[in-house]
């Protein structure tokens, strides 16, 4: 864990560490209320993701083997009480197999590096999106 400049932060999670508890521990040590993921570099193993399919059916899936993080986005919120961690990601494993969803748990497979950016409270806006229905003519 090392700050870089005023607003950019790099969080390093060591091999075999549980990612979500390490992030929560880090968040509670910071004064910022909102942190946005700018990038994640590394691999996860023994992780569970939630996949939302058609008609909002959610499925949880556990992966034992190591996967490389291809893409990630998310937000960490520390506004009192238990810190909230929301990470969505795409991952791949050997053999051109990929998966994606919301990270529920997992361990770093080698060092995991997370780039974060502080978001000012007055610029962090929560929005609720309503479902749109489209009819074919």
Q: Average pLDDT across residues? A: 83
Helix content: under 10%
How many individual β-strands? 9
Which band does the percent of strand residues land in? over 45%
**Number of helices, where a helix is a run of at least 4 consecutive DSSP H or I residues:** 1
Structural class by sheet pairing and helices: mainly beta
Rg (CA only): 16 Å
User: How far apart are the termini?
Assistant: 55 Å
Strand and helix order: EEHEEEEEEE
Would you write up a description of this structure?
With 137 residues, the protein is mainly beta. Strands 1, 2, 3, 4, 5, 6, 7, 8 and 9 form a nine-stranded antiparallel sheet that branches. 7% of the residues lie in helices and 53% in strands. The N terminus and C terminus are likely disordered. Strand 7 and strand 8 form a beta hairpin.
